[in-house]
Amino acid sequence: NTPCNFRMIIYGPCTHPRIIITDHIYEVITKLSAGEYLVVDSREGTVSRVRNNGSTVNEFDNRNKKSSIFDKIPAGNNMVSWDGSFGFDIIQYNERDEPKWS
Questions:
Q1: 3-class SS at 56?
Q2: H and E: helices and strands count for the chain
Q3: In a structure prediction context, what are the per-residue pLDDT tens digits for the chain, which is 102 residues long?
Q4: What are the residues facing 38 on neighbouring strands?
Q5: Around Cβ 62, how many Cβ atoms within 10 Å?
Q6: What is the DSSP string of 42-66?
Q7: Torsion-angle region of 93 (φ positive above 0: left; ψ -120 to 50: alpha; else: beta)
Q8: CB-count burial class (<10 Å; 0-12, 13-18, 19+) for 14
Q9: Which listed site, 1, 13, 73, 102, has its alpha carbon 20 to 30 Å from 39?
Q10: CB atoms within 10 A of CB 76
């Protein structure tokens, strides 16, 4: 197994959402209102807030710059922690760099 790219979706309301995965901080310095959500895509290198009306706001410049929000998630079992004030989903992309032989 190798580290994985991911898509992280964080649901508002919340302020400065921070998720720690195995001692690595994934954080955006922003505020999400009820019904809004934040999408972090490590493959695309994007951070976007989706407003209630469907429009998007580029939050790239508001990411925590001391701890890369795009670092891949390590392989194996990982401890995940956050303050519990918001919900989130993490979709991991298991990718191969060589074809599987049969």
A1: strand
A2: 0, 10
A3: 789 999 999 999 999 999 999 999 999 999 999 999 999 999 999 999 999 999 999 999 999 999 999 999 999 999 999 999 999 999 999 876 666 666
A4: 10, 49
A5: 18
A6: TTTTEEEEE-TTS-EEE-GGGB-SS
A7: beta
A8: buried
A9: 1
A10: 8
Q: Which two tokens stand for residue 2?
A: 């190798």
- How far is the C-alpha of 80 from the C-alpha of 71, rounded, in Å? 15
Query: Per the structure block, which two tokens stand in for 32?
Result: 């999400």
d(CA 49, CA 19): 16
Contact criterion met (CB below 8 Å) for 59 and 40 = no
Taking a C-beta distance cutoff of 8 angstroms, is the pair 91, 7 a contact? Answer: yes
Considering the entire predicted model, what is its pTM?
0.91
State whether residue 61 is helix, strand or coil.
helix
Q: Which amino acid is at 79?
A: M
* Torsion angles phi and psi, residue 71, rounded to 5: -60, 135
User: Which tokens go with 96?
Assistant: 């191969």
